[in-house]
Amino acid sequence: MPEITIKYKSAKALKALQNLTKLFDITIEGPVGKVASKDEEKAATLPITFAKHPDVKALAGIWQGKNITLEELRKKAWGDRV
User: Fold this and answer.
1) Which residues of 25-42 are buried (b: 16+ CB within 10 A; e: fewer)?
2) Residue pLDDT, tens place only, 39-59
3) At residue 77, what are phi and psi to the nearest 5 degrees?
4) For residues 77 and 72, what is the distance between their CA atoms, to the nearest angstrom?
5) Nearest to residue 31, comparing CAs of 12, 8, 50?
6) Does pTM surpass 0.90?
């Protein structure tokens, strides 16, 4: 049986290829991967640089001048789960 390799960039293209395989009785073998949702695609392209160049000092003093206690922060974050 003849074989070809197809490279695709987006989940939309993969979905279209999968639909075509049904029409022409073609099988897809190998790791296809999961089809990413639009939210996942957007998240992958966000320009977040903190993880590339972490600087823990950037968050220093984030609560300075705010009228909030550690207990209040925990309560807001965890609710009744603590």
Assistant:
1) eeeeeeeeeeeeeeeeee
2) 666 666 767 666 667 777 877
3) -75, -45
4) 9
5) 8
6) no
